[in-house]
Amino acid sequence: METLWQDLRYSLRALVRKPAFTLATVITLALGIGANTAIFSVINALLLRSLPYPDAGRLVMVTLNDRGGPIGNTSYADYTDWKERSRSFDQLSAIRSWGGTLTGQGEPEMIEGMRVSASYFRTLGISPALGRDFTAAEDRPDTRFVVILSHSLWQRRFNADPAVIGKPVVLTGNTFTVVGVMPRGFEDFLAANFYQRAEVWAPLGYSPADPWACRGCQHLKAVGRVRSDVSLDQARAEMNAISEALVREHPQSYPMPGITITRLQDDFVGALRPALFVLLGAVGFVLLIACANVANLLLVRGAARSSEMAVRTALGAGRGRIVRQLVTESVLLAAMGAVIGTALAAWVVDAVVAFGPRGLPRLQDVSIDGRVLAFSAGIAVLTGLIFGLVPALHAARPDIAGMLRESVRGSTRGGANRTR
To answer: Which of 13, 78, 112, 395 lies 20 to 30 Å (CA to CA) from residue 366?
Structure first.
């Protein structure tokens, strides 16, 4: 550790003595590391970070198949058949978009929301922070006039009044009773991904006799929580068997049998995954180009320091000691580039969140967190080794006698050119 500290202090002094070289190198590395850090922060939020629901890996989307593949939606008749016949799910719920104009609490405001089956929040594994969840008895046409509010709506329109439970609210002329308020920070990603950001939820309230509950009325989405003792493949096999039975019973309603079950997170970002990894590969090549440019700068600098290296060798410094000193300088440069690059990445991430496409799922979760910082630190060390090791090995092989006589300048330049 004492030797490492000496190397760091000497490296810092050497870099301060060459401000133009240091500035050019650090800016080059900052652009490469910053681009990689920014893209990784998006991948981290969308692909690596699990959804903020308990045991989110068991949450799945269930959809009918058509000849061209999954169609995304299902009907109420299908949903009720799946719920009655399947044994693979702890909970299975149906959802659809909804909304209305809130009146009676200040200025009228258009509120986006969701109609959901009574088990919806239990499927997600989330309970209201205030009040209670929906009951099965409320999920009927004549009793569906109850609502659960988001925490933000409760604060904005009801002044965070805990006595709001049991009070009436008017949405587009219909009177609903507030039965619950969701926890602070709860985000309904299904609503945001498939419809719009929801601030109020009401029971689906369908009846099999409703004309919009027909088998061909495919306007609902189904989300389920697979049982802990059931694998995804087992759930798929059971649901496909149920689909084949329904096709035999209602051949006129289905073009073909088949049900697709997809993990909820994969359903959100499945189409984005290839594009994000291609983008990460692209900025990875940008970083490699930056490493090549910096390695060239180090080779030129190494040629200028050849006499210094010769003196060090003559005084007893081994090749490994010289390589370690030069690699320490390279890693220090990369660390400086990583600090500036991470700051640039944070600015880019803020811009992406503020101006990115509204339809991108979990866009607001893109941030510089501990995992992203660890990635930036790791890529800084790796980058320092990539661009620093070859110039260090080259500089650690001086011709001592020739350098001290200053008579082999041409041979040194030729070796550097070949390496570059």
So the answer is: 112
